[in-house]
Design brief:
Number of helices: 6
Number of domains: 1
CATH class: Alpha Beta
Structural class: alpha/beta
Bound molecules: fe (ii) ion
Radius of gyration: 18 Å
Strand order of the largest sheet: 4-3-2-1-13-14
Distance between the termini: 20 Å
Number of strands: 14
Helix content: 10-25%
Order of helices and strands: EHEHEHEEEEEHEHEEEHEE
Length: 279
């Protein structure tokens, strides 16, 4: 699916309309699969038709139950062979065993690129270097802290400073990577996170735990740099759809929320990401 495409130097949005065929991208996404040994041999069937339905697969963290390389290997074996570009961020569960580096290595060895404060440009479609779409994905795990009117601040004990400081650092990385992608002139930009940038997609969760589910700092980063879509997971009891204060579309793709193995979102110059029926 991946192919060389021409370099677009900051293409104006209206140029995307010049070729209907190549002016959109289909993004399959999910989070919170929490893979474990019992899923061995059972996942790939759920994703068998994905390459016909989507151009790329994005994984929004909590890929394992407890963050062991063996659990990651289950997911890697099941999804690695899929013939589409695959990019992921880790979630808090993937850090639990303090083996996140090994988890990352297992996933990357299978062809699942793990973003931890990095951005990747995926070249999609096109023939002979012409007419392709360049999708930029900036990935960070994100972290908590809460939202406007009910958030933590980096004040007081070192533990509190460390908590909020972690979120700040990741939000700054996200903003820089989204800005890098804009400067590279990609056609579409996606912010891929595990924690939520907005409270809207947490609706359904207990209000008391919102500060552990996401942070407004992530939304500020997305809004300052700009993006076409922001994806996250983590909030199993939340809601699928929301927008940042500046209007960037946000989707909570945690499997318990989308109630499907994955969701497919179509990005086009038209604006709001259309949702295709999942498998
Ligand atoms: Fe989860
Ligand atoms: Fe999580």
């Amino acid at each position: 699916m991946s192919a060389p495409s021409p370099f677009f130097s900051d293409p104006p949005r209206q140029d995307r309309g010049g070729s209907q065929k190549n002016s959109s991208v289909r993004i399959a996404a999910f989070g919170d699969v929490h893979a474990g040994a019992e899923m061995c041999g059972r996942l790939h069937e759920q994703f068998a038709h994905l390459p016909e339905r989507a151009d790329v697969l994005l994984l929004a963290g909590d890929l394992t139950k407890c963050g062991t390389p063996d659990e990651a290997r289950v997911l890697a074996d099941e999804l690695g062979p899929l013939p589409v570009p695959k990019l992921a961020v880790l979630g808090n569960h993937d850090y639990h065993a303090d083996q996140q580096d090994k988890v990352t290595a297992v996933l990357e060895d299978s062809g699942i690129r793990v973003l931890d404060g990095q951005a990747e440009i995926v070249e999609l479609g096109g023939q002979g270097g012409q007419g392709g779409v360049r999708l930029g994905v900036a990935g960070v795990k994100g972290f908590g802290g809460g939202f406007a009117g009910a958030c933590g601040s980096d004040f007081g004990e070192p533990e509190m400073k460390a908590f909020v400081g972690h979120t700040k650092r990741l939000a700054e990385q996200l903003e820089r990577r989204l800005t890098d992608l804009a400067e590279a002139g990609v056609d579409f930009r996606v912010a891929l996170m595990h924690y939520s940038p907005i409270p809207e997609t947490l609706q359904g969760e207990r209000l008391e735990i919102y500060p552990f589910l996401g942070s407004y700092l992530l939304a500020e980063a997305v809004d300052r740099a700009g993006a076409d879509l922001a994806l996250h997971g983590h909030a199993h009891g939340g809601s699928e759809k929301g927008t940042t204060p500046a209007g960037v579309h946000v989707r909570n793709v945690a499997q318990p929320v989308i109630k499907a193995p994955y969701r497919v979102y179509c990005l086009s110059a038209a604006g709001e990401p259309d949702c295709e029926a999942p498998s």
